[in-house]
Amino acid sequence: MQNLYETVKKAQMVVQVEAVRVQKELAATEIEGYCEGELIKVTLSGNQQPINVEITEAAMELGAEKVSELVNEAYKDAHQRSVQAMKERMADLAQSIGMPAGLGDGLK
User: Fold this and answer.
1) Residues 87, 37: contact at Cβ < 8 Å?
2) Sorted alphabetically, which InterPro entries does this protein's record hold (predicted)?
3) Is 65 helix (H, G, I), strand (E, B) or coil?
4) Which terminal residue of the chain has fewer beta carbons within 10 Å of its beta carbon, N or C?
5) Is 103 a member of any domain?
6) What is the mean pLDDT of residues 48-77?
7) How many angstroms separate the Cα of 89 from the Cα of each of 22, 46, 94, 96, 99?
8) How many CB atoms lie within 10 A of CB 30?
9) Is 7 within the bounds of a domain?
10) Quick check: is 13 in a domain?
11) Domain limits at 31?
12) Confidence of residue 97 (pLDDT cuts 50, 70, 90)
C-alpha cells in the first residue's frame, strides 16, 4: 500500500511540474485574431491576456462605432484561437502523462 501511495505522489508531482511548464509556454505564446478583412489585429497570449491591438488607417476611416465592432470581432477571433491552443496543449499534457485521449472532451 505504501508503494501505491508513493507512486501516486510521484505522478502528482509530474503533473504539477508539467502543468507549470505548459502555463509558461502559453504565457509566452502570442496568438493573433483578425476581424473580417483583416482591418484590425488583436494579439493575446496563450492564456488569453491582451498584448496588442493594431488598427489600420482604413479601419479608422469607418468611424468609431464600426471600429469598436471590428475590435470586438478581432478580439473574439484571437480568444477563440487562444482557447483552442490551450486545449491542444492540455490534451498533449494529458497524453504525455498517460491519460486516455478524449477524457476531457466533455469540457468543450
Assistant:
1) no
2) YbaB-like_sf, YbaB/EbfC
3) helix
4) N
5) no
6) 96
7) 7, 10, 9, 10, 14
8) 12
9) yes
10) yes
11) 1-97
12) confident
Domain count of the chain? 1
7-28 burial, b for 16+ CB within 10 Å, e for fewer? eeeeeeeeeeeeeeebeeebee
Whether 34 and 74 have beta carbons less than 8 Å apart is answered as yes
> Are the CB atoms for 31 and 44 separated by under 8 Å?
yes
> Which residues, other chains included, contact 19 with Cβ-Cβ below 8 Å and sequence gap of 6+?
93
Say if 105 falls within a structural domain.
Answer: no
The per-residue pLDDT for range 24-61, each reduced to its tens digit, is: 988 899 999 999 999 999 999 988 899 999 999 999 99
Residue 86: give its domain's CATH number. 3.30.1310.10
Closest C-alpha to 33, from 65, 66, 80: 80
